[in-house]
Amino acid sequence: MGATSPAPFSDIGKQAKDLLTRDYHFDHRFTLTMLSDVGMGIIATCVKRDRLFVRNISTQYKSGSTTVDLKVDIHSNVSTTVVVREIFPCTKATLSFKIPDHKSGKLDMQYLPSSSCSHYIMHWIDSNSVSRRFSSYWNQGV
Q1: Mind telling me which GO cellular component terms the entry cites (predicted)?
Q2: Which residue has the higher pLDDT, 2 or 4?
Q3: How far apart are CA 141 and CA 120, in angstroms?
């Protein structure tokens, strides 16, 4: 993506928020990270909040312009995110869904040329109806 293109609306203020809140935890945390040379990584996390242990396992695979994230929590919920960059020039497609929640599917496609930004999101409500939202932001030479 070009350095002159505007940031998506969801990324506005993210760097400032991360600066103030990222990596600050007051809970007991244990993280085991295993990385490989072929682009695969496995992270096991355990957090103790009050007297409850919350555990999850996540894995990430990167190959070329594709990234696949898979996360399993203590309740056997599986969250999956697939990001493909540059399907077409200046595009990014993200597919995310959770198992067993069949209504959680989301397809997010972004087109970011140097002078404008378009964002298209599809949410699966059920197998028969699809809710669509289209929003555009056009840079007016700012």
Answers
A1: mitochondrial outer membrane
A2: 4
A3: 22
